[in-house]
Every structure is written in structure tokens, then in C-alpha cells.
Amino acid sequence: DVKVTQSSRYLVKRTGEKVFLECVQDMDHENMFWYRQDPGLGLRLIYFSYDVKMKEKGDIPEGYSVSREKKERFSLILESASTNQTSMYLCASWGRQGAKGTEAFFGQGTRLTVV
Amino acid sequence: QKEVEQDPGPLSVPEGAIVSLNCTYSNSAFQYFMWYRQYSRKGPELLMYTYSSGNKEDGRFTAQVDKSSKYISLFIRDSQPSDSATYLCAMSALRGGADGLTFGKGTHLIIQP
After folding, report:
1. Which positions of chain B have pLDDT values less than 50?
2. Which residue, among A2, A43, A100, would best test binding to B if mutated, counting the most B CBs under 10 Å from its CB?
């Protein structure tokens, strides 16, 4: 089974802090995604990456950056956390090649609260 | 345009009923379609994956894709209280989601015992 692991289930951070959310997948997938999920707004794509050191902006990249130094790891960075970034953050991965990557799988989510 | 429309519900049905969940979309380039189930405070769990038009069945679940109408459906037979969750449709034009996966907002389903 594909495993997508997010480093934390719950985080509480202060306004202005720099926040790192880590995601690791073990299926050698090329593509990885970061979403945030808010009531009434659904899942919104923040950033995605289709290869190491490559990144693409999603629909709501403002206030976020990402890092993909290794294929299995995709990090989301909140440069200066604000209260409007309080949300559930979800990481997903999907492979382009072969039977091992025909579907996208999600991590368990990180519920971030900024106070 | 990447918009996907999905009725948020809640949809409440009695146990044992057949449930029909639907999404419509506007981007004719979409050809990879997925359904996810999400329980409260958990990450989405993949239920069904379909490429292009057609039907796919897995146990009590059937996924249908009609690309000509830009309409996808998920049917749940013999619904159980444990099926109560939010169901999300997702789609992509490129294999692997290289264009970014696009989601509906989810339908909240309640199965009454």
C-alpha cells in the first residue's frame, strides 16, 4: 500500500512564526501536492511538484512556499504564519508511470491552528 | 477552466438504500476521475479510480463516467451507517495529476440506522 505520511497531526503556532509541514511518500511517486481544506470551501490546491526541485503554484499560493529536495519528501512552508492560515493541510502523491501510480493517495492531514 | 460542481448536501438516506452521488465538470480535458471518502478529521481515502468514460464496480461501489455529458457518479448499494462520511470527487487531465488534481467540494452523506 502507498503510504503518505505527514509529520504532525496537530500543530499550534503563533502569528509570525515560520512553520514547516513535512510530507513523505514511500512509493517513488513523481507528483506531490499540498492542499488546504476549509469548511464550505473544499480542498484548494496550494502548490504541487512534478519532480525534484520543481514546483508549480496552485490556486492559492500566497503566503506559502514549498521545497522538494528529495523525491520522497515535499515540504510546505508558511513564511510568517497568520490566523487566516488556520486550516487542515493535506498532502497527496500520485505516480505517472506504471501500475504503481494510477491513483492519488493522501496523508492523514495536519490540523494547524495559528493563534 | 477547472471548475467541478458537487452538491454539498447533507444527503440523508435510510440504511440499505441505494445512494447516488454526482459531480459535473466543465473542462473537457479531464480524463482521470477519482472518488474519495473522508471521515471527520481524517485524510481522504481513495475509493474508486476510473480512466475516461465507462463503469467500474468494486463491491458495493460503482463509479460511472459520462464524458459526453461531463458527469460522473458514485453509487453505493446496501448503504451502511459506516458509509456516513463526506464524499469527494477529483479529476485530472494528465496522468499523475501533473496539471494538479481538481476536487469538488464534497457531499456530506448520512446513513440513518
Report:
1. none
2. A43
